[in-house]
Amino acid sequence: MSLTDFIRAMPKVELHVHLQGATQPETWLELARRNNVDLPAKTPAEMREWFRFKDFRHFIDTYIHVVRALVTADDLELMAREFLKNQAAQHIVYSEVTYTPSVRTITGEVPPFEEQLAALNRARAWAEAELGVSMGVVIDIPREITAEEADFYADWAISGHGRGVVAFGIGGYEPGNPPEKYAAQFARVYAAGVPCVPHAGETVGPESIWSAIKVCKAVRIGHGVRCLEDPALVDYLRERQIPLEVSPTSNVFLKVFPSLAEHALPRLLDAGLYVTINSDDPPMFNTTLTDEYLRIVETFGFDAEQIEQLMLNAVRAALLPADPKAQMEKRFLAEFARLRAEFFAS
């Protein structure tokens, strides 16, 4: 047997994946039909072609189009169930899922946040019972909104913490949109004890990561791959072992690196940084978490021990209570040993 078989079968944790961005085209079509929403594509094949990432503006435009199809709490529950089915098919037993509520929730055009959270938690309970997988929710504010609008997101993160919500974050277009715009909201969330896992250091360099650390009090960094441009920042991240949520294929599509072969992943590891592997927005980037591991093995020649360590990094960086996290790590170690014996025994 091969390392490919090992990767496909191994248990997994994913820390950086967007719920809307991970929703498959077929699900968006179903939601559009339910709610009489006209999309630019009419068939699964057309949807996949339309979804194919072209540039960041195309990504935003696609997102704006499809979220119009997300109208009711039942729609959101369907979306979350389909997402969790796809995670279970990859043996992803726990996901921390970035969820960006539509700004329209502020005007009441879609269900209020309590109904949205209840829908996500129904999907979570169903997946735990039927599929043996679970998720935590990261409430994510899009960088382009006003500080007044961001107050709603902060309220939701605080009110939902411990009821399915595990963290607060910020995503979207980095240039010109630093987290300082929302300093008051991050301070309020931090004071309430909600961890922060902001996107930073992807399309903007080290200054974005420093802001995430200072303004957001980040416990993890979404992406963070451009930290290598600042040796002092590398030292800071290494000394404190702040995890980086690295999404290699996403970084290549967003032109942070010209190709996967030129990705900073080996250099991040050589620098002693804490790295986890993630898929980000898988249908947009024609990937999955499993594919991410397969690609880095093919490109960089990682062995089973290195793959196991990257996965254990994700387990240990998960925002779970100490006892369940320790139990999950124990389970993973036992499963890795079983799979090594099955796939690599001479």
What's a quick, concise take on this entry?
The protein has helices at 3-9, 19-22, 25-34, 44-51, 56-67, 73-89, 104-107, 113-130, 147-160, 183-191, 206-214, 231-240, 248-253, 265-270, 289-300, 304-317, 322-344; strands at residues 12-18, 92-99, 134-142, 165-171, 199-200, 221-223, 244-246, 275-277. It has 346 residues and is of the alpha/beta class. The strands form 2 sheets. A 4-stranded parallel sheet has the order 1-2-3-4, sandwiched between helices. Strands 5-6-7-8 form a 4-stranded parallel sheet.
CATH C-level label: Alpha Beta
Q: How do the SSEs run, as a string of H and E?
A: HEHHHHHEHHEHEHEHEHEHHEHHH
**Assigned CATH architecture:** Alpha-Beta Barrel
- Figure out the total of helices: 17
Poorly predicted runs of 5 or more residues: none
Structural class: alpha/beta
Radius of gyration based on Cα positions: 19 Å
Strand order of the largest sheet: 1-2-3-4
- Integer average pLDDT: 93
- What spatial form do the alpha-carbon principal axes imply? globular
> Helical percent range?
40-55%
- In the CATH scheme, what's the topology name? TIM Barrel
Number of strands: 8
The description of the largest β-sheet is: 4 strands, parallel
CATH superfamily: Metal-dependent hydrolases
Q: SSE layout and pairings?
A:
Layout: H1 3-9, E1 12-18, H2 19-22, H3 25-34, H4 44-51, H5 56-67, H6 73-89, E2 92-99, H7 104-107, H8 113-130, E3 134-142, H9 147-160, E4 165-171, H10 183-191, E5 199-200, H11 206-214, E6 221-223, H12 231-240, E7 244-246, H13 248-253, H14 265-270, E8 275-277, H15 289-300, H16 304-317, H17 322-344
Parallel strand pairs: 1-2, 2-3, 3-4, 5-6, 6-7, 7-8
